[in-house]
């Protein structure tokens, strides 16, 4: 990759955040633990709003689901949903596969295992538009039609859409963070609409907003 396309983190460290996490067990643990903490923040909301979201869903893949905290909460609260986590090998390698969540190692750019629904929590904000469209297309390949209740559930900030004005500040701070360490950014509703349309989805619905994140259901 040309230097002009590298983010400041890569220019400083000579590799991406995901590559460092793969090479350095301490960084890998620190990052995964931080993601576990962030998931705990959202668990209450998923449980509170989940009745409508997970109604009629028999299977779900949490793409880039890390240590599986969110998937486990969903599987416990909504036992009719079989949950699978897809993540990179160094993230899922030490996860026991004997619990209510199944772990699969793989690359979301290549393949997403089939399921009624795909969850993308804090994934797309790490990637450029081009990469997001590739990921979303793999997700669309994995789900059935809308009539068969196929959908992608995106948990991300919708910049400008907040439950309280005070939440706009963390949205913009996260935008700066994404700019520094990833290829991505925080997106407003128009940005999201562009990505969903380009990836071949027919419509979407922002079903709830809390703090600086929202839940967006995206339909094939
Ligand atoms: C910002 S974290 C979000 C983790 C989790 N969804 C959460 O919110 O707690 C991004 C996740 O994407 C995973 N990831 C990065 N590249 C990936 C790829 N090519 N295929 C699958 N997972 C990937 C990372 O290992 C990490 O667990």
Automatic annotation (TrEMBL):
Residues passing through the membrane, by range: none
Gene Ontology process terms (BP): methylation
Gene3D superfamilies referenced in this protein's UniProt entry, alphabetically: Vaccinia Virus protein VP39
Organism: Rhynchospora pubera
Name of the protein described by the UniProt record: O-methyltransferase family protein
Superkingdom to which the source organism belongs: Eukaryota
Transmembrane helix listed as a keyword: no
Domain O-methyltransferase C-terminal: 4-202
GO MF annotations in UniProt: O-methyltransferase activity; S-adenosylmethionine-dependent methyltransferase activity
Keywords from the UniProt entry: Methyltransferase, S-adenosyl-L-methionine, Transferase
InterPro entries registered for this protein in UniProt: COMT-like, COMT_C, SAM-dependent_MTases_sf
